[in-house]
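DM from R.C. (forwarded with permission)

"hey, sorry to bug you on a friday — could you get me a structure for this? deadline for the figure draft is monday and I only need the backbone to look sensible"
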Amino acid sequence: MVLGCILPLSTGTQQSTTGTHQVLPIPIGEAVHDVLVLGRPGWGNVELDTFYAAQCDNFARLTFKESQALDFPIVTLGHFPYLGSAEKTFHVRFPCKYQSLEGAPILFDFLSGKVRALYPVFTMQDYRQGNFEVHEQPVVQQAIYNSMDELVKPWEQCDVLKPGTLVAANVTINVECMNEALVM
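My reply, with the result:
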């Protein structure tokens, strides 16, 4: 689990219909992800600040231990200082937000309230018709819950997960290893 406050767009947080995708229109089957950059809560709460510092140290030790076992330097994804600051942050990348069904009929599910339910892309707040090659690409319900343990619908996500919001995220840590001889 990673705990932190959502930082502003200027630090790399990306939440929108197009997510991290830069070129429009988005091709069929292209992976589109949202990214939250989490930083120290900064509210002067000693317990939260201590917890945040400890998780940063634990993450650094984990990645250092991995690099020692593999005997070459590593690049970690998810823990970077952002430009202009030495503050340690976590980059949390969501699973792909769209499902490519390639010709299969789309069964939209507005009532189930289940993770992985599908919704029409036009339900997204910032939807623009020209953003996609195919209008019918469905939005996948992510496992995002609010403080009342209610599932946050995709079209509510930007209102709920805004800068300054405290987030606890169950995450998988990705570590990429790079052989020193390949670096030029």
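R.C.: lifesaver. DSSP finds two helices and nine strands in the chain.
me: no worries. The first helix runs from residue 46 to 70.
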